[in-house]
Amino acid sequence: MADEAPANEAAGDAANVSGRDVAAILMMLLEEGDAAAILRQLDPDMVRDLGAAMLDVAHAGEEVIQDALGRFVDATQEISELAATAEPRVRGVMNAALGAVRADNILATIAPRSSAATLEMLRWMEPEVIAEILAEEHPQVAAIILAVLTPEAAAVALEPLDDNHQADLAWRAARLENVPAEAIAELEIILAHAADRPGRKPGMRLGGKNEVARIFNTMKKPVGERVLKSLKKKDKILGQAIEDEMFVFEDLNELDAKALGAVLRSVDAATLGLALKGADQALIDRMLGSMSARAAESIRDEMAEAGLVKRVEVEEAQKQIVGVARQLAASGEIMLGAPGDDYV
C-alpha cells in the first residue's frame, strides 16, 4: 500500500529495525500514563532522543511492529515480571505512604545496592563519622547533611557537638527550603572525600521546622531542652515554631488522665468536636471516655452535626487545643510529655 512506504523509510524494514526504534514503537503502544512513567526515569538527552524516534516510527507498518515486539519479548523473557517492577512499585507505595524523604531513607537501608546517588553515602556512614563531618565542614553544608539524615541518625550525630554548634546547625536546617544545585554538588565532593579517608566506612524536600522538631524529640530530654534553649537565644521565633512542632494534637493521648481532663475542661464542645473529626479512633475513644456520659454524647452530636468539614478547619481547631495544653503547662497545671519522660 502506498501509505506504508514512509514506515519503511522511517523505521526501516522488519529485518533492520534498530534498538532505538524498538524502544520507540513500544512507547507508542503503551498507555499514555505508562509511557510518561517511563520517561520520568530517563535523563533529558534520552528523553529527546526517544521522543524523536517516536516521531520517526509513527507510520511504522504491521511487520515492523511485530518484529519490534518479538525482539522485546526475546530480550525480556529471562526477566521476572516481579523483578522488573519491584523497585518502582515498592518506591511508589512508600512515597505515597511516607513521603519522598522518608521513603528514600528506608529504601536506602533495605535496598542499598539500587541507589547510585552520592548522598546515599550519608545513610551508610556511622553516626560518629557523620559527627566528625558536621564538626569540620562549613555550617551551611553541615546543615544540609543534617537534613538528609533520618531524625534518629541526626540526633546521634549532633550529640558530640557543643551546645552552640548544635543550636546553629539546627537553626540552619530548620531554615532550609530549596537547596541550590551548587551546594549539593559541593556536598557530593565532600562526601566522596570523606568516604575515602581511613577509618571512615561507608556502610550505611530537606530540612524544615518539622524535621528539626523530630530530631529534638529523638534526643535525650535534657539535651534536647538545652539545645532548644540555645536555639531560641539565636532565633526566638524559629525556636518557638520548632517547639510548637514538637507537641502536636496526637500527643494529647500521652497525657495522664488528670492532665487530659484539665485540657478538655478548658475547651468548648464545638472546638473539640471539630478537632476530633481529624483524629484517630484511639484518641477519640480516650478523650470521650474521660468525660461524663452526657458531655461525651454532646461531643458526638457536635461531630455528627458538623458533617464534612475542611481539613484546614480541623487543623486550626487542633492547634487551638494544643495551645490550651501549652498554656496549662506554662502555668504549671499540667506537664506535657509521655508518662515515661524524666522530670526533676
Characterization of the model:
- The chain has helices at 5-11, 19-29, 32-39, 44-56, 62-76, 81-98, 100-110, 127-136, 139-148, 151-158, 163-175, 181-196, 209-218, 221-234, 236-246, 257-265, 269-276, 281-289, 293-306, 311-330.
- It is mostly helical.
- It has 4 domains: 2-78, no CATH class; 82-114, no CATH class; 118-221, Annexin V, domain 1, CATH 1.10.220; 249-344, Annexin V, domain 1 (Orthogonal Bundle).
- Helix 11 (163-175) packs antiparallel against helix 13 (209-218), helix 13 (209-218) packs antiparallel against helix 14 (221-234) and helix 17 (269-276) packs across helix 19 (293-306).
- The longest helix is centred in the last third of the chain and has 20 residues, at 311-330.
- The chain is flat, with a radius of gyration of 28 Å.
**Largest β sheet strand count, sense and barrel closure:** none
State the helical fraction: 55-70%
Q: Fill in the CATH topology of the largest domain.
A: Annexin V, domain 1
Overall shape: flat
What's a concise summary of this model?
With 344 residues, the chain is an all-alpha fold. 68% of the residues lie in helices and 0% in strands. The radius of gyration is 28 Å and the shape is flat.
